[in-house]
Write a structure and sequence with these properties.
Layout lengths: L3 H10 L7 H15 L2 H11 L6 H4 L3 H6 L27 H4 L6 H11 L7 H17 L9 H4 L4 E4 L2 E4 H14 L6 H15 L7 H4 L8 H20 L20 H29 L5
Helix pairs in contact: 2-8, 2-10, 2-11, 2-14, 3-14, 7-8, 7-13, 8-14, 10-14, 11-14, 13-14
Length: about 290
């Protein structure tokens, strides 16, 4: 994607660009639901017309469906940012360099953060703004949504459980679904989120979580979201392709593969989903109440 304007139609048509798939996005929604304040729950419930504990998760994939419609086609570039770095040698996101003229996920988070509180907008427009925020905060935590190389990994052919696929799809769906289980309902995502929430509260992430919110501010949304993108993108060099494309191309990356790729990746996938949910909760709390509350 050297030229974002020319290649955006191609990227939006690829099935592998729906970051995290339904399971991942819904899991992020449930993690966030577990940490938003009571005031934020009321605020979000009023906007989404949903007072249930599924409110955030239930709309977490809306933006992926919407982008496939004629009305929503404009939003295709908002799901990613093309880091023009050089993995695995260097990984980095530079907003001024990498956010194309058609927009990117960082700019989209900034835009819809502003729109969700605009009194001049209709209830439908505010509803859409909140759904975009929920989705894009998930997207930005998928490392290959912060990477330009080979269309964010879509052109890197690999195998997973003996099925031919691409590296982007492996990170979107194959790894999370293998770990948590495949389900067409929200049940699996809720169970996955419960595990991640426990890790955040008292487990492996308890000592890390405060650092996930460092510098977060609605007065500099671009800066805040750029930090998130940089954090996720760094994993392209250290976890996704630490030994380069040739080391994974046409290789079996599933649990039975000799590379041990799945086993090395799943801790990072879990961490990123936890970070996405916790940061989404803090972000919604900031928008609704003025404080992260965490």
């Amino acid at each position: 994607m050297k030229n974002l304007v020319l290649l955006t139609p191609l990227l939006s048509a690829l099935p592998g660009v729906l970051a995290w798939g339904a399971l991942g996005h819904e899991t992020v929604g449930y993690v966030a639901q577990n940490f938003i304040s009571s005031a934020t729950k009321t605020w979000a419930a009023n906007i989404l017309a949903d007072t249930s504990s599924d409110a955030l998760a239930a709309v977490a994939t809306w933006a992926d469906s919407y982008r496939e419609t004629t009305a929503g086609a404009f939003s295709a570039p908002y799901h990613f940012i093309d880091a023009l770095d050089n993995p695995p040698t260097t990984c980095n996101v530079v907003y001024s360099r990498d956010c194309g003229s058609s927009g990117c996920v960082i700019k989209a988070i900034s835009n819809y953060t502003g729109r969700v509180t605009q009194k001049s907008l209709s209830a439908e427009q505010v509803n859409e703004a909140l759904k975009f925020i929920i989705h894009f905060v998930g997207d930005i935590h998928q490392p290959l949504h912060d990477e330009n190389l080979d269309l964010g990994g879509n052109e890197i052919t690999v195998k997973f459980n003996k099925t031919s696929t691409n590296l982007h799809a492996v990170w979107d769906t194959s790894i999370p679904e293998t770990y948590a289980g495949v389900s067409s309902s929200l049940t699996t995502a809720k169970a996955y989120a419960t595990k991640l929430t426990a890790a955040i509260n008292t487990g492996a992430y308890a000592s890390q979580k405060s650092g996930w919110l460092t510098g977060m501010t609605t007065s500099d949304v671009i800066g805040t979201a750029t930090v998130w993108a940089k954090n996720a993108n760094a994993n392209v060099c250290t976890v996704v392709i630490p030994h380069g494309v040739s080391a994974v191309e046409d290789q079996e990356l599933g649990p039975t593969g000799t590379l041990g790729y799945y086993q090395s990746a799943i801790p990072t996938v879990n961490l990123l989903l936890a970070q996405a949910g916790y940061r989404l909760a803090a972000w919604l709390n900031l928008i609704a109440t003025g404080t992260t509350g965490l």
